[in-house]
Amino acid sequence: MEKLIYGSVAAKHWFSDFREPKDLDYICKDNSQRTRDIEYHWADSFQYVIDNNVDPKYVDADFLYTIKFSHAAWDVRWTKTMKDIRFFKDKGCRIDWQLYSMLLKDWAVIHGKKKVNLNKENKEFFNKNITRVYDHDWLHGFLAFNEEPMHTRIRKTEKPLCYKDLWDKLS
Asked: What's the predicted TM-score (pTM) here?
């Protein structure tokens, strides 16, 4: 049976300053050995990880980052996911875009369709069905970096949709 340790235990293996793990996660097709503290996870795209992972025991750091990054579009422990993404990015990890594309397809089946479609006009995206306490654009301006809202650096149009090539140019 092919299996690799992933999740926080693998992250802690690669980076001693990663948060303390609370359980042990494996990428493995067979989840019959699951216990309270040991979880076995499988998505079809994990075969790519098993086939391309360099380390024989732990999921490589770039794959951990890619898996975590792929979760960002779904509300699955979102705050923890965002902190982990920032951690891996700060450590210099890179996204494997081939794996990322495969994972998005798996997560759409496992977690359902993405909740947000950013590829629409602002007027449609920011509809009147949502009660807002503060003006959305004011918040962007208030939290701007170097007097320019960050979202303006990763968008090509007035739509809320962000672009990978512009994201990659950010520090």
From this structure: 0.70
As a whole number, the mean pLDDT across the chain is 86
DSSP state of 145: B
Write b or e for each residue in 51-88: b if 16 or more Cβ atoms lie within 10 A of its Cβ, otherwise e.
eebeeeebbbbbbbbbbbbbbebbeeeeeebeebbebb
Q: Which residues, 6+ apart, have CB-to-CB distance to 96 below 8 Å? A: 62, 63, 66
Burial class (CB in 10 A: 0-12, 13-18, 19+), 10: buried
Per the CB < 8 A criterion, the answer to whether 35 and 15 are in contact is no
Instruction: Give phi and psi for 165, each to the nearest 5.
Output: -60, -35
Q: Which residue has the tokens 């990054």?
A: 69
In this prediction, residue 38 carries a pLDDT of 86
Measure the CA–CA gap between 41 and 50, rounded to whole angstroms: 13
* Residue 30 backbone dihedrals phi, psi, to 5 degrees: -95, 115
Predicted confidence at residue 116, as pLDDT, reads 64
Q: How confident is the model at residue 36, as a pLDDT?
A: 73
Q: Which residue has the tokens 């990763």?
A: 154
Q: For residue 26, how many other CB atoms are within 10 A of its CB?
A: 23
Low-confidence ranges of the chain (pLDDT < 50): none
For 5, counting Cβ atoms within 10 Å of its Cβ (0-12 exposed, 13-18 middle, 19+ buried), the class is buried
